[in-house]
Amino acid sequence: MILLLAAGALIWVWTSYGQHRQDQNVATANVIIIAFVLLLLWCLFFSRLRWKVRLGAFALALGLIGLVPLLFRLHGVTGDLVPILEWRWKNKPLASLASVTSSGSAPTTHAIQLTNDYPQFLGPHRNGTVEAPRLARDWKLHPPQRLWLQPVGLAWSGFAVVGNRAITQEQRGDNETVVCYDLLSGAVVWSYAYAAHYQSSLAGEGPRATPTVAGERLYTLGSTGILNCLDLQSGQLIWSKDIVQDNYSHTNEWGISCSPLVLNELVIVSAGGRNGRSLVAYRAATGEFVWGGGTDGAGYSSPRLTTLAGVPQILIFNDGGVRAHDPADGKVLWKYPWRGGHPHVSTPLVLPNDRVLVSSGYGVGSELLQIKKDSEGNLNASQIWKSNRLKAKFTNLVYRDGFIYGLDDGIMICLDASNG
After folding, report:
1. What angle do helix axes 21-41 and 2-16 make, rounded to 10 degrees?
2. What Cα–Cα distance (Å) separates residue 98 from each residue in 95, 104, 176, 192?
3. CB distance 235 to 204 below 8 Å
4. Helix (H/G/I), strand (E/B), else coil: 244
């Protein structure tokens, strides 16, 4: 009876319960745990087996439960809240790279002509595209070949690539570490480490923002809010700021995930300060505070510069919704509220004709907004269409030739931009 009820409950969970997979996974775990407990109670009190057998089965079950934490440790969870277990004797994360010294130049590698730089999050234009990449189209005739394999520290950061340098962030022991690799050999060119460590069973471990290269300088934002400006060639620190302490904010539940935006002489980050310090700008050369704007708590997206309705503006997906800021002084130009209670991650996608697509997971979906000026010259946003067929939980979306491409809670989707 217990097994039949459990099977029926699981069928209901996976056919009718919840709006997304993480709800179903949590419910599945609950059904299995409840069924297991009920089976133990049945065995112990109602099975009519000999007491020796009942007590033996009960002791065996308790022993197996106690054995699990001795053999495994929780490494984190997937995006759908499925636990990731690893053996307790598995090798620990890589140690510090503090002993690595900078040579001041990348190692010599065989001659390969490089094409596109990728100097920041989502590429040169922060829209997930590169222009005219030179790629072999027939992978049967010209299959990709691995050039090198390099172990790295724990992190969720991407790479910024300029010339032969590929820079990322890693967790090395108790230090967050910015590491510059030679693109063609994988050799470490230089590293910069500082004391910072963010970790939780749900959010995972390590820094989670992609570095930004601007000229001969590199800007990184760690998971606890340390904003660094480094020399691109040597990795030497030029200046550093704690954007959490600076802006009376706090570290988000899933860590600070904003990739810095460099605009003219400013470096702009989402700090989440409530008193006019939601989005903030520092002097790129010195780290001096320049302006702040907005009162929203920080989300997990990164700022993007665009022009809508003829007005230059910086878009950011905050905890409270989408905001557009004036690049000159940080003033909020327009805002659009968004359903809360879940992380806001995906960077708003700019489409032609002054339109912006906003998307989030957890059953919410996407909305296409039209940005217009009213009779007094103020900007406002209105909805064109709404769709539940594209729920961008973590990933960012790409627009091309009238179509929107992205992951709908893990499933590849293409939407018609005109009507959703």
Report:
1. 170
2. 9, 16, 11, 7
3. no
4. helix
260 contacts 219 by C-beta, under 8 angstroms: yes
Residues in the chain: 420
Burial of 353 (0-12, 13-18, 19+ CB in 10 A): exposed
Instruction: Write the CA distances from 249 to 203, 274, 397, integer angstroms.
Output: 19, 7, 29
Task: Tell me the C-alpha to C-alpha distance, in Å, between residue 88 and each of 75, 78, 91, 96.
Answer: 10, 19, 8, 21
Q: What is the pLDDT of residues 262-293, one digit of tens each?
A: 999 999 999 999 889 999 999 999 999 999 99
Q: How far apart are the first and last CA of the chain?
A: 47
Pick from 128, 298, 324, 321: nearest CA to 223:
298
Query: How does pLDDT run across 2-13, given as a tens digit for each residue?
Result: 999 999 999 999
Which residues touch 117 (CB under 8 Å, ≥6 apart)?
A: 124, 161, 162, 163
Distance CA 320, CA 63 (A): 47
Strand partners of residue 190: 180
Is pTM beyond 0.70? Reply is: yes
Coil/strand/helix, residue 37 = helix
Q: Is 102 exposed, middle or buried (0-12, 13-18, 19+ CB in 10 A)?
A: middle
